[in-house]
Amino acid sequence: MNHAALMYHDVVTRGREDASGFPGAAAAHYKLDEAAFARHVRTLAGSGLRFPAVTAPPGAAACYLTFDDGGRSAAGIADALDVHGMVGHFLVTTGRIATPGFLDAAAIRRLAVGGHVVGSHSHTHPAEISRLPAAALDAEWRLSVDRLQQILGREVTVASVPGGFYSHAVARAAAAAGIRWLFTSEPTMRPHAVDGCRMLGRYTLWRGMSATDALALALGRAALRQRQWLGWNLKKPLKRCARPVYQRVRRRWLGEA
Predict the structure, then answer these.
(1) I want to staple 157 with a disulfide (CB 3.0 to 4.6 A). Which of 48, 126, 180, 185 is the partner?
(2) What is the CA radius of gyration of the chain?
């Protein structure tokens, strides 16, 4: 059975969006405030779904919770999930480890010891990872995986694609670095494999989305999944063929100068 996956980023105090993760209006669009996230967790916990690790044996009625970037709010997020026995997948931008707003090595180890999944979100979070030359693309995944394995003392097999810029080359490079589960930003329930690495789509939660929205995405109710899928596919040709136009529209939409 295919399972849904939800994509979160940071959880912050309202008005202090830059305290965790990447700064700026574009990043803040994907950060929930603490009260809203608490409502999401309570609602999802009461859904009847399981929230396991993607690395665990598959079962019925499950949903994966993922948190991109590696912002320092991951520690509090993990505490909130622990109350309900939920597993989080914390995908870390390793070039930002121990920099302001991001997790340090000790906090990363605590996440793993607590039963959560720690994985890669690339090394530098390039703006468009799919456009990197082959050598740079390989380095993004290998450096990130190596750094996390040094911190954790264990194999790292889970990752997510930064910025939503997925391509076959991105997947192949991740697989070559040892990744076996790669979360994308495509809102789909249809996984596929590349060189032994399983590609898993995700549905996105951003600022202002309600706990009811999170539940609908997790369970597949109403038309919210379909709207995300349609929006994603409308953006595809712009991202591929008209990048300057797409970037201007996106910056304006997100309120970024």
Answers:
(1) 180
(2) 17
Token pair in block for residue 125: 């979070």
Domain 4-223 carries which CATH code?
Answer: 3.20.20.370
Nearest to 156 by CA among 170, 164, 146: 146
Residue-wise pLDDT tens digits, 72-129? 999 999 999 999 999 999 999 999 999 999 999 999 999 999 999 999 999 999 999 9
Strand pairing class (181-183; 197-200): parallel
Provide the sign of the torsion angle of the four alpha carbons 54, 202, 10, 50, taken in this order.
negative
Q: What is the reported pTM? A: 0.92
Report the interhelical angle of 105-113 vs 134-152 (nearest 10°): 70
User: What gap in Å lies between CA 142 and CA 18, rounded to an integer?
Assistant: 28
Tokens of 122: 């690339």
User: Please, what is the angle between helix 168-176 and helix 134-152, to 10°?
Assistant: 40
The neighbour count for residue 5, using CB atoms within 10 Å, is: 26
Inter-residue contact 67 to 88 (CB < 8 Å): yes
